[in-house]
Amino acid sequence: xxxxxTIREAxxxxxxxxxxxxxxxxxAAILALDTERRTAQTALQEIxxxxxxxSKRVGEARRNGEDxxxxxxxxxxxxxxxxxxxxxxxxxDKSIFDTLAAIPNILDPDVPDGPDxxxxxxxxxxxxxxxxxxxxxxxxELGETLGMMDFKTAAKMAGSRFxxxxxxxxxxxxxxxxxxxxxxxxxxxxTEHTVPFLVNDATMFGTNQLxxxxxxxxxxxxxxxxIATSEIPLTNTVAGEILPEARLPIRLTALSDCFxxxxxxxxxxxxxxxxxxxxxxxxxxSITHPDHSADEQERMTACAERILAMLELPYRRVLLSxxxxxxxxxxxxxLEVWLPGQQAWRExxxxxxxxxxxxxxxxxxFRNPDGKMGGFVHTLNGSGVAVGRALxxxxxxxxxxxxxxxxxxxxxPWMGGVEFIRKP
Length: 424
Fold this sequence. Notes:
elongated, BirA Bifunctional Protein, domain 2, Helix Hairpins, alpha+beta, single chain, eight-stranded mixed β-sheet
């Protein structure tokens, strides 16, 4: 959410900033609404003052035994004018609010300009794609051959983009989630949470899922929403709060099911479980002091990278371009993992700094040690990491020539010591 005062003070800067998102200038229309609103508010205040003066004169006339009928009629008339102006101000407030809510965050200066992912910049790569010594298979070929990944039965029950995992492969998915969660809580300082999978409109708005991304989410018949990520409830734990500066940073994590309609993904990744309506993810959320959010983004991304390194997966860090950066982010690092079956790098984590964009929508502030209001907190979110995609990456990178899957040593404590997953 944007501050109208910033737009008033630097309209040219604001238009130039959103032009990087391939958006047309917006300040002229916003400031016209703002001027109309302030004019109406001034008129309302003037009428209020005049009506108060009339009411005072009515009281004086009554005390003096004078005829106050004309004055009382004027008071009623002014009340009607006030009500009309109050409705006008409220309508203009909503128009301004709705307009600002639909404009994405201002990008960081170091975000490269570009139309889409083709302009992303690879910042580093860790590990090299291995030569497996045989023609690698994709995860769904491996899973179906093992008899542990069932798309047909899932489709019969729920439609496309659902999967049933069985036996050791289901345990491997569970092991991945537990491994990630335990690593982030015991080594990286995040506090574990369990969160609601259903949330209300205000919670969705706070993390900018509404209004822009309503079609990407599932809504229940009672008006609640299935979460697309546990970022939504985790970040909203501070909604409406004034936090003591000493509590910052707050680092939160959760392993949750996530639900996405994939409305814009028709025809993309239709084979396998890369893009599902339901999947699991370990989410990382940080609430920080504004001075420290850039460092916190680096720290969060390093925590996600640690997971990939422990799983013995080649990965790279990518800085997203202006055309690929999400609506609420000022800057995003994607982590991409190598998938031998696809012979491609695929995203497995996104770590974003939203600065005060979400905090303004949630009204989440902090208080300085001297007791004075310090302003809005900064919020960050990242995948630490997507469990389903980690399963895919482990399967494809650690596949054997006979179709077995080697279990990375980091997962053995959660797998009961099972070192290979083989067909029964």
